[in-house]
Amino acid sequence: MNGNIDQHAVGPSGPRLQHVRRIGTALGPCIGLVVLFLLFSACDMWQNRHDPENANFFTMYTVQQLLRDAAPVGIAALGMTVIIIAGGIDLSAGTAMALGATVTAWFIREDYHVVVALMAGIGTGCFCGFLNGTLISVLRVVPFIVTLGTMSIFLGTGWLLADNTPIRTDGKAPQWVLSLQQEIQPVHDWMLFGRGVWLMLGLAVIVAIILHLTVFGRHIFAIGSSESTARLCGVNVNFVRVAVYTLAGLFVGIAGILQFGTIGSGDPQQGIGKELRIIAAVVIGGGSLNGGRGSIVGTLAGACIMEVILTGCVSLGLSSTWRDVILGLLIVIAVTLDQIRQRRLMAGE
């Protein structure tokens, strides 16, 4: 056996049909994003029909705000997409992201150079991912259980580092770090969406290249489609798994930097529940929890969909309960559609 993976190993159909399915997986969430945005815009206009000047959802500023707020979750979800394509899951992504932000804040508070602080935060994310991948490979325990445990470990480590209180930098953080998330530029400025959004888009291109134009990417798809087949084809499954989780940890660390830029402090509690939003972005974006399928464009659309729901509910004066209900319904629908597709594939349709 050699390390080359037959294109047919990643699914029952040929490469051309696989390409068509990938396009469909990406376009579906994008169409859903546009429809949802227009729906909330229409509801906002109807609610303010007697005072049209208050109808401000359908504006460029709203689009800028949506993309800016989606950036941290979107960047972390890029890594989660790779994990889910490889047939894994990571429940610790939220607390690892908060731990990275907390480490960054600690280094800045202790007067280390900002570059050292940022590298420490990103390195923390990488280490968290490496630890997850290593434990899953060595212990041979399902990723759900391992990352459930490390989720608590990372949260506790963050609180120990912060001495049970959020780490405040007392104005020591450079403005350019804080402006990664806090600035929204004028429409005429080429940076109109903010640095965090452009960073997210740049990283998305890199991940897409890795997944679709490298041998490593083919191995990721092969492992997610059938781990046993991948082993027979000569893929070092354990190495790829550790590399996948470490790569995802890199994106989690970067997302932690953006989280620090958003709140200007290191708060381990900020990561609680974030993993659900990160995973939801991938699932809503067309990723399969059975592995073997995922879309970078779809994931970014999924992250934006959640922000549209959040911002739309706020704009309409709805409580956060409605936001959670709508998001939960979308997740159930996305998973149900994925299961239907899987059953059809199994039936040979």
Which characteristics define this entry?
349 residues; mainly alpha; ABC transporter involved in vitamin B12 uptake, BtuC; disordered N terminus; two-stranded antiparallel sheet; 2 strands
Any overview of this molecule?
The protein is globular, with a radius of gyration of 21 Å. The protein contains 13 helices and two strands. With 349 residues, the protein is an all-alpha fold. It has a single domain (61-346), classed as ABC transporter involved in vitamin B12 uptake, BtuC (Orthogonal Bundle). 72% of the residues lie in helices and 1% in strands. Helix 2 (60-85) packs across helix 8 (215-225) and helix 2 (60-85) crosses helix 12. The chain has a two-stranded antiparallel ribbon with strand order 1-2.
Specify the overall morphology. globular
What is the CATH class?
Answer: Mainly Alpha
N to C succession of SSEs: HHHHHEHHHHHEHHH
Beta-strand percent range = under 5%
Overall average residue pLDDT: 86
Helix content: over 70%
Helix/strand layout:
Blueprint: H1 15-47, H2 60-85, H3 93-109, H4 114-139, H5 143-162, E1 167-168, H6 175-182, H7 195-213, H8 215-225, H9 227-232, H10 237-263, E2 265-266, H11 274-284, H12 296-315, H13 320-346
Antiparallel strand pairs: 1-2
Helix pairs in contact: 1-12, 2-7, 2-8, 2-10, 2-11, 2-12, 3-4, 3-5, 3-10, 4-5, 4-10, 6-10, 7-8, 8-10, 11-12, 12-13
